[in-house]
Amino acid sequence: MKRNSENSVDMKFGVIAVSECSDFLATNLEAVVEALRNQGCLEENIVLKYVPTLHDSVVATQFMAQYTDVDGVIVVAPKAQLMETLPLMNGIIQIQVQWSMVVEIGGAECAKNIVSMISLQNEMELASGVSRAERSDLC
Fold first, then answer.
1. Other Cβ atoms within 10 Å of 36 Cβ, number
2. Tens of pLDDT along 74-120?
3. If DSSP codes are grouped into helix, strand and coil, which group holds residue 74?
4. Contact, 64 vs 110, CB < 8 A?
5. Strand residue runs (E) in 10-139
6. Number of H helices and number of E strands within the chain?
């Protein structure tokens, strides 16, 4: 979907809630959804999925990229905890590169960042004249 502004009305977001981070979820999950709404995202454009462990967040992000039409994913989990595990971070980075998909990790602060990054991606896509799908076919 081509957009050239930081208006998230037409953007679709995947939100992955990591159940083992229950304390973090209790204070951050609703805040993430609310922050996306405050950025202009429509309720029907938020795809919320739960995974049991932090390790499952990588494959869930892959599933979001492969099986949905989301523009980006927020993994609702403590960023420091995920960043301390190199294989998890490598998995997330590989998905970002392979699928050209923005992935943010953390709480409500991610909403503004992800909208800005998707807007930048869309702006650059429009300027290139080649869609993400077409560019993926070239690789």
1. 25
2. 999 998 887 788 888 899 999 999 999 999 999 999 999 999 999 99
3. strand
4. no
5. 13-18, 46-51, 72-76, 102-105
6. 6, 4
Locate 121 and state its tokens. 């991606």
**Are 10 and 115 contacting, i.e. CB atoms less than 8 angstroms apart?**
no
78: burial class by Cβ within 10 Å (0-12, 13-18, 19+)? middle
Per-residue pLDDT, 129? 81
Query: Which residues are CB-contacts of 32 (< 8 A; sequence separation ≥ 6)?
Result: 15, 74, 76, 107, 108, 110, 111
Q: What is the pLDDT of residues 51-80, one digit of tens each?
A: 999 999 999 999 999 999 999 999 999 988
What is the structure's pLDDT at 138? 53
pTM for the model: 0.87
Domain chopping of the chain, boundaries: 8-138
Judge residue 103's burial from the number of C-beta atoms within 10 Å of its C-beta, 0-12 exposed, 13-18 middle, 19 or more buried. buried
The yes or no reply on domain 8-138 and CATH 3.40.50.960 is yes
